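Slide 14.
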Amino acid sequence: MASISTPFDPQAPAAEKRRLLLIMGPPTLALLLFFMLPLGVMALYTFQSGTLGGGMTWSLDTYRRFWQDSALHRLLWRSALVSLQTSLWCIVLAYPIAYYLVFRAGERRMTLLTLIIIPAWTSYLLRILAWKLILGTEGLLNTFLLWVGWIERPSPILLFSQTAVIVTLVYVWVPFVALPIFAALERMDKRLLEAAADLGSPPWHSFLRITLPLSLPGVVAGFLSVFIPTLGEYVTPLLVGGVNGIMYGNLIQDQFVRALNWPLGSLMSLVMLLALLPMFLLFRRSDEVLQP
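Slide 15: predicted structure.
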């Protein structure tokens, strides 16, 4: 039997090697220039003492300062909890939407899916400001509560709090969680549900034993697609969170922009990246285990 050569095989034809180099060369170069190189520069900044300016001094003062500052550790942990809550709420809200689109919407599924995605076409900043108006003193929420008589005078009930940050982030990310779940449910073989029904399985049992396990890759992808970017979020907490809703990303932004303490800001960014590595490993592991 003739052996099959691959582009990585030393005996592969030179044309295949050139084709592989042509395909993988540009993205590899872009990754090195726009990700690995800036990451390396940022890592070098962590060894510089003091604020921005001066020569490069190889010092571990920034590492010692970060290690001794328990407030930064608590804020990173609190930000991770906010991201976790946001991701879980997004899944809870997005899964029924995706399920309805696949199994109940029929020919209207693509139209309804488009309507769900349309808000994402508008400015991210405008959507956050809209929620700031809704949760504010003169916003829609206060107007409704005054109308039903639950409060006597307007007050910013949810604004400038951790709850406001979670509510706003959930609104922003729900469509992006619904998409991978929709794709996973769409790929599912519907004949499995028909066979289960023929064997006398009730709908809820078929959902738990067939639909949910087969849709878990989409659920995991949706969870990680929310958790990873929201951990470093700083725009939403800045606009609707206030002092009580500040997150880890806000302090990183302050170190670079206001304090001009690039060494500490770089170290905080690297720590956040290292904190996300378990999520990447979880994604790879779950992708291997949950493949149908």
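Speaker note: Residues 44 and 263 are 8 Å apart (CA to CA).
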